[in-house]
Amino acid sequence: MSILERIRENVSQVIVGKEEVIDLAMIALVANGHVLLEDVPGTGKTSLAKSLAKSIDGKFQRVQFTSDTLPGDVVGLEYFDMKESDFKTRMGPIFANIVLVDEINRAVPRTQSALLEVMEERTVTIAGETHVLPQPFIVLATQNPLESAGTFPLPDAQLDRFLLTIRQGYPNRIHEKEMLRRFRQQDPLRSLQSVVSLADILSLQEKAKQVEIHEEVEDYLLDIVEKTRQHELVEIGVSPRGSLAFMRAAQARALLKGREFCTPDDFYTLAEPVCSHRLTLSIEGDMKTTKAHVMKEILEQVAVPVENV
């Protein structure tokens, strides 16, 4: 059994009937990218983050964002130790392999912006000193898309740093019944054991970068990205950072599927979760449609390469 198959099987003990969701989480892990978990409360967002961290034997930290959460509560701060009469640095919970930022849109913009350097550079600057975060490092942030009271919308610069968006949704009746039976006597998350090491994950991340992309498939990626910038209802399309994220995610998916090359299907499947949150719709667009619907329209308009690659 491969490394990725072991992770998938392990996480599936906790997350029932959500194979696509688990695959997207593993794609983010292999592509070394961050995830925005956007769904209503109680759909298993925290369980997904914890089970993924346990599976890779990584350090897990959870940060609950509220309106009074300060940047120092997240990244750490410098303080004066009265006993030793000296300044010391207290590392924040961001120093972990998998960090769950719960309800990220409840923090004020100042605190949200503390994650910008963290997510892009994988470093933290405290009192002018730069600290490197442990590797691998992934932020899984959650937000409830239906509740707006007491929230602060994430700025485009923040959204662009998420590799992809995952929407878990409700389980169907069969899977929910299986969940009830599995959790009846104990929580499977408590007994979950690691199945791979952090070194295995770092090795996979390097291997994913070697996955080949044929020129025609690469052009398909660029066609999709260009269409997002030209759509009549889109004010701001996918950025160059988004193009790189699209490529990395597709390489990770190919590796997940046991291939050494990307296919058009990799980009077709990942277009919505990777690109939709990067779009800024016009005022007319906000009134008429959704970002997900725009991406579906774009995929219908862009010709898919048909030659064997």
Automatic annotation (TrEMBL):
UniProt cross-references to Pfam families, sorted A to Z: AAA_3, AAA_lid_2
SUPFAM superfamilies referenced in this protein's UniProt entry, alphabetically: P-loop containing nucleoside triphosphate hydrolases
Record domain AAA+ ATPase: where: 31-172
InterPro entries in alphabetical order: AAA+_ATPase (IPR003593), ATPase_AAA-3 (IPR011703), CbbQ/NirQ/NorQ/GpvN (IPR050764), ChlI/MoxR_AAA_lid (IPR041628), P-loop_NTPase (IPR027417)
Protein name listed in UniProt: MoxR family ATPase
